[in-house]
Design a protein that fits this description.
Helix content is 86%, strand content 0%. The protein has 239 residues and is an all-alpha fold. The chain is globular. 49% of the residues are buried.
Length: 239
């Protein structure tokens, strides 16, 4: 194992937990939280994960195939789970395994964040610090996203706390792996494209339709604020 990535990745654990606890406090105003985090998830996908995939793959065709693959994977899997409740559409809308899938995808994204930290510190301290700042700055939102998504599907605070813990520990686990092993840029780029597609599906296909089922200028503003937050974060991280 090389570098100090796993040690500094512990900072992301606290950042994720703080975001998740805020999400739990807002659970009684879930539609507003979903409107905001839906914007954040789309921002993460389109402004952070997808550009990184493009920079690693350097070919639009493979990036597009990776994104649509991730999108369709989550779409068909979530629809298959919903069909278990085909006789009760309202029950299907909140079917628990769909929330588990979304939380697992977000947690694996956090694992990849940690992997990036661990791998970056094996390259150089300056590269590692840049990646760490980028990850910590949006892991707060990741914690909120995970809690909000689970609550939107199950309304189970205990289950949401469990997935928050998984999401918080994931970057540290990823950093341990990243400090020990580095995949090729091509393989990592494909993985990032797949998860960009999954996050687009979570944001545009699950969170935002539920948040905006009724007209609300305030929720529209919250969604725009979520996207704007990730725009600011990614711009600052690139400086």
């Amino acid at each position: 194992m090389h570098g100090i990535g796993p040690a500094v990745a512990l900072i992301t654990v606290g950042s994720t937990l703080m975001g998740g606890m805020l999400g739990l406090r807002l659970r009684h105003r879930l539609s507003g939280a979903m409107a905001f985090t839906g914007g954040v998830v789309l921002g993460v996908a389109l402004l952070d994960v997808l550009p990184e995939s493009v920079s690693r793959l350097r070919t639009g065709r493979i990036v597009g195939e990776s994104v649509i693959g991730g999108f369709l994977f989550f779409f068909f899997l979530s629809r298959a789970l919903v069909l278990e409740h085909r006789d009760d559409p309202r029950s299907a809308a909140g079917h628990r395994p769909v929330g588990v899938l979304g939380a697992a995808a977000l947690s694996f994204h956090s694992f990849l964040d940690g992997f990036g930290i661990g791998a970056a510190f094996t390259v150089s301290t300056s590269v590692g610090v840049a990646v760490l700042i980028a990850v910590v700055s949006h892991d707060f939102a990741d914690g909120m996203n995970t809690v909000t998504f689970v609550l939107s599907q199950t309304n189970d605070a205990k289950r949401a706390r469990g997935w928050l813990f998984v999401d918080a520990v994931a970057p540290f686990a990823g950093a341990l792996v990243g400090a020990s092993f580095q995949p090729s840029a091509h393989v990592f780029g494909i993985g990032l494209g797949v998860f960009a597609g999954i996050f687009i599906m979570i944001g545009a296909g699950e969170l935002l339709p539920e948040a905006h089922s009724e007209p609300s200028a305030a929720r529209l503003a919250l969604t725009a604020a979520g996207v704007a937050l990730m725009f600011a974060v990614t711009r600052l991280a690139s400086l």
